[in-house]
# Entry
Amino acid sequence: MIRLLIAAALLSVLSAASLAQETTKAINGGVLNGKAKSIPKPEYPEDLMASGIQGVVRVEVIVDEGGTVISAEPIAEATPRSTEAETAFQLLFPYARSAALEARFSPTFLNDSPVRVRGVLVYNFLKEDSVKSAGPVPGGGVLNGKAIALPKPAYPAVARAVRAGGTVAEQVLLDEEGRVISAVAVSGHPLLRAASVEAARTAVFSPTTLAGIPVKVSGVLVYNFIPPDSKGEHLNN
# Structure
């Protein structure tokens, strides 16, 4: 009898633990920049900028049921970064992480219950003189969520053959009508960059106005390639 009671108690504890794990499980939200109520810009120290340390930093975050970021960690890329890119990432990540922890979101509901969300915040650290030739251009941050048309990039056969994957970030410039007039890959696997540039150039946005006047906008488009042996061929957010 005692053994039965102990077994029943253990079963109850395991069931409760399993239920708690399911309750706190986070759903996938993809790139979250366009979904934030507030997303502070990260600090970009002048000494790093002057040294040419720049690039795109992706931070994996978990947003709790109330819309507060409770975790911000580096993302393990499918393809190793170059030495230069890894150095830039290590130097810039602490500033991106601090900004990510200050971001705020509206609660997300699933079946009328608030849930946690796991996603990515993307920060672009870019020297001012890198876009100076384009004239004074407002920064639009990550633009994926603002596009009215965002074609997916093709997954190049040669990249698929060697299982090249990971994130490609494109620095883009939009004209006054919302068309992409410049697209340059600033990070990502070399075999995936050309396809991402081609896709970025076909994206379309609504015009941006400043004081009622249409203006150009600089920002980032992010494409995520998942190697073919993973679930799904490729995704882009």
Q: What stands out?
A: DSSP finds five helices and 15 strands in the chain. The longest helix spans residues 2-23. The two ends are 57 Å apart (CA to CA). Residues 15 and 131 are 56 Å apart (CA to CA).
